[in-house]
Amino acid sequence: MKKMVSLLILVGIVTGVLFAGGSAEAEPAGEQKIQITYWQYFYETKKNTIDELIAEFERLNPNIEVIHETFPYENFDTKVAASVPAGEGPNVITLYYGWLPKYLDAGYLQPLPHQYFDPAEIEAEFFPLVQAVKYEGEYYALPTAVRSLALFWNKALFREAGMDPEAPPETLEELISMAQDLTIRDGNENMLQEGMTLMLQGQLHHWVREGLVRQFGGVPYSADNRTVTYNSPEGIDAFNWFIDLKKVYQVGDPQFLTDDVTAFKSGRAALHIDGSFRLGTLNALEGFDYGVTELPSYNGVHSNFASFWTHGITSFTSGAELEASAKFLQFITSSDAMELWLKNIGELPARREVALREEYQQDPMYGPFIRGLAYANSTYFVDETAQRQVFLDVYDKVILEGMSVEQAVNEAAAAEQAVLDKHYAN
Fold it and tell me: Could you tell me the pLDDT band of residue 129, with boundaries at 50, 70 and 90?
């Protein structure tokens, strides 16, 4: 299969599938080799896939060598931030789209060269959410893949509970009922099995913000993204509903088995909301019987969150290194690279013509995520780390400190508004 995919990549390049004028011709062997560096955070399937793409790219461009460096996810943003003042680091870098504003403010990235990346062609070929990395008419980055959320369920645990393993919850009401039936505690009320994972710092803070708040009739931010609005009555109702999963229904615990992914992978959690990137990891587990479905609706309303990691070129990259970096970025955002990424990792192709192929839309695993893109929203983060933390604080203030949900949400809104005001003031 890998040989077949590599052949597809080669054919796509030779026939001009690559984006906006890239060349497939191998450079003369006698030319001096140009070395560029690529950074991303460590995620095993991503590392392996990039290594596979690099090997093919270097075969087609023998005068270019790509040094691939990875760092633990928890330290990646810090590592990047430390390299900004010194103007050091990689030539091509992967960043979460929500981090871009602060790195653009620092002058760390340069606009993508138009000879390789025509803005008009980007907007014609990529999902519209990539405009989150467009500033003052220029694109500063481009993704290989995009993400949405879906509900994972453990079919084996459904069977053990006497439930239909092919009938996951379709509404929020069914989600609560099934999660309760799938929760198991011992005689001392210690949790043995979670009905549903509840770790906000994973993907659930996105679900609350862009999923539940909208499903309950609110919106998280104003149309210009400058004002926090999730502390409306509808938004507070959404937070209340989520908090009650722990406080009232007791279907899960954020600290159960260290984290939610571990709990689900080990067969100790029945329901789990996560991104499409999780498919590669779960599919590697021998005999793990699970399914994927679209996020549950509420009163007939669907809502989802879409995001992406994106590749940019650092501002201190110039000359031959800039040309080599642009060629490499063009290569890893090609249609064929996206297909390989989807098969190896599970993240959705960023180009519409790839993602919306019938075979992918109807796929039992990819399909729910792709269909979810139709009603997904991408939060316009200015400081993703700080904006995520205010949501985590809501949960802690209510569960650990006994604060009312309304007060906790209002305090979160005020804290996040300060983050937005600081950004736009500058």
Answer: confident
pTM metric for this prediction = 0.78
CA dist., res. 386 & res. 378, Å (int): 17
CA distance 47 to 338: 15
Distance (Å, whole) CA 210 – CA 142: 23
Question: Which amino acid does the sequence have at 400?
Answer: L
Structure tokens at 25: 């011709």
Triad 232, 233, 234: Cα angle to 5°:
90
Residues in the chain: 426
Listed ranges 201-205, 213-217, 222-226; the one with the highest mean pLDDT: 213-217
Q: Please report the pLDDT score of residue 30 as a whole number.
A: 53
* pLDDT level of residue 31 (50, 70, 90 thresholds): low
C-alpha to C-alpha distance for 344 and 184, rounded to whole angstroms? 34
pLDDT in tens, 366-394: 999 999 988 998 898 888 889 999 999 99
CB atoms within 10 A of CB 266: 12
State the Cα–Cα distance between residues 73 and 89, nearest whole angstrom.
16
* pLDDT confidence of residue 374: 83
d(CA 47, CA 59): 18
Q: Tell me how many degrees the CA angle 33-7-25 measures, rounded to the nearest 5.
A: 35
Task: In whole angstroms, give the CA distance from residue 152 to residue 270.
Answer: 8
Q: Answer yes or no: are the C-beta atoms of 289 and 302 closer than 8 Å.
A: no
Q: What is the DSSP string of 321-340?
A: HHHHHHHHHHHHTSHHHHHH
DSSP at 91: S
**DSSP letter assigned to residue 171:** B
Helices (H), 298-365: 319-332, 335-345, 352-355, 358-361
pLDDT score, position 412 = 97
How far apart are the C-alpha atoms of 346 and 280, rounded to whole Å? Answer: 6
Q: What percent of the chain has pLDDT over 90?
A: 71
Q: Which domains does the chain have, with CATH numbers?
A: 15-147+307-377 (3.40.190.10), 149-305+382-425 (3.40.190.10)
